[in-house]
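User: Need the bound-state model for PBG:
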Amino acid sequence: MPFPATRLRRLRRTPALRGLVRETRLDPADFVYPMFVEAGLSGRQPIGSMPGVDRLSIDAAVAEAGEVAALGIPAVLLFGIPAEKDAEGTGAYDDEGIVQLATRAIKREHPDLLVIGDVCLCEYTDHGHCGLLRPDGSVDNDSSVELHVRTSVSLARAGADIIAPSDMMDGRVGAIRAGLDDEGFSDLPIMAYSAKFASAFYGPFRDAADSAPAFGDRRAYQMDPANGDEAVREAVLDVEEGADVVMVKPALPYLDVIWRVKERTGLPVAAYNVSGEYAMVKAAAAAGHLDERTTVLETLTSIRRAGADIVITYHAKDAARWIQQ
Ligand code: PBG
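Assistant: Bound-state model below.
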């Protein structure tokens, strides 16, 4: 029955009525907080483009992990900045590498907090690409996958709870699954960065992790922002290769992709609200153009409404505090 019998405003009249019919709620239990751990650092080093996020020493990361756990956030995602970089990204699969050491230290102090290990060579290679280079400067898929398998096994040995490959090489999920199983880690889940787009929104991360490519860009392995069907294909292939969770990244410019991947796979879907999305909100809020709290909560709610079960976000700690208030 149309207006005047139907009046949608009836259910919007008071906070209690709005709460009663609210379809999507934010819960810190669905958040993942990313952290940057730097070898050789003492204390913390602010990241200019990401106010509120610092590069951390291992001790500082352990303390921050405790803060995260106390806020009811179940997981951290670790990125490492090694002391030295080389062409083969050896720091990524060194059993005494920065993320391996940080993982052990965090799990020792906070055994119930989940540590997710990001698997990619770009923070560890001197050229900043996500794998091994051929003489012509292109990234060689299959030899890079072998190193991602080594990295995954090394992170598993260090105590990581979830392995998250973010390199976008073909076939890496299947290879990592087989590699983990061979080493006795058949219980360890894989969260695949399945639809990872070649995005301008990674800019601040590359400052933070010191991982900008020295030449060229990542378009020969990360996805074209124009492609939704292909994103679904990527996710379906990762499911066939054994992914336990599939991810869409970035989040806000790709809400349609989150929805399609969720509909098609039925798997737990993670969305990564990336560094540039964070930096935009922080910069606009600092300039007085946006209210930070309502903007962040609206953004995170939209990502959940689009179908994400898990939201990886630098706003996680603030949002958890706001939700609990
Ligand atoms: C590594 C990686 C990147 C991000 C997560 N893992 C950067 C990239 O591909 O350059 C970006 C995260 C962010 O922007 O917050 N490949």
